[in-house]
Amino acid sequence: MALTRLQKILAHAGVASRRAAEKLIAEGRVTVNGTTVREMGTKADPATDNIRVDGRRLKPADTLRYILLNKPPGYVTTRSDPQRRPTVIDLLRGVREYVYPVGRLDYDTAGLLLLTNDGDLAARLTHPRHGVERTYEARIAGVPDAGALERLRRGMPLDGRRTLPADVTLLSRGQSDRDGVLMMTIREGRNRQVRRMCEAVGHPVRALTRTRIGPLSDKRLKPGMWRELTLEEIRALKKSASHNLEVQTGK
Question: Do residues 104 and 125 touch, judged by C-beta distance below 8 A?
C-alpha cells in the first residue's frame, strides 16, 4: 500500500494546490472511505481508497493543462464565488479538465494569470519562499518623487513584516501630471501587495495590470482570452520555480 499525504494526493489529481487542498481538508470537505478527514497529516492510498471532495470521487488528472489567461477586471480568481460574481473559470470555454488558478489577481486587477491541474508546479509557484518574479504596470494617483520610489524599491513593513526589495521604474507621467505609471516587479505574493505598497507612499493605484509571471509574458493576448503554454514555456516556468526555491532555501 502506497500511503501519501492527502493534500499531496489532491494536488496530484488536479483538484487544487497543496495549500488550497489543506483548506478543503480543514473545512471538512474531504472524505476517505466514507469518513470525513480534517487532520493534515492523514495519509491514504489513491489506488485503493475511496477519496471524495464535496462528495465527488477523486480521479487522477488524465491530461495536464497549462493555461495562460489575460484576466479582465470584474472577475474573481476562484473556481466558484458565493456572491455569484463572474469567475476566471467562466472565461475558459472548451476546457474540460479541472484546472484552478495559481495564485490570484484581485477583482479589479487585470493581466496574466496561470491556471493548471499540475499540483506539483502549483505548489512550487505558491510556496512562500518561491521568489518567482511578477511584474505589474500600475497607474497611480500623482507622480512619486525619488524618495517614494526608493521606499518602494527598498521594501516597507506590511503586516509587521518588511517586503522584499522590488524593481520599480517610473514609466511616464499621466495626463496633466496628475498621475503616473509605474512598472513594479515583486518576488513575493502578499495580499494586494502592489496596491498597499503604493498607498503606503501616498500614491494609490487607479488601475493595475500584471504583465509578467516569471518567464511568461504575452502582449498579444487580448483581455478575456487564453491560450495553452508552449512546451518551452512550461520548461522555463518549472526551471524558474525550482531555481528560485533552491536559492531561497540555500540548496
Answer: no
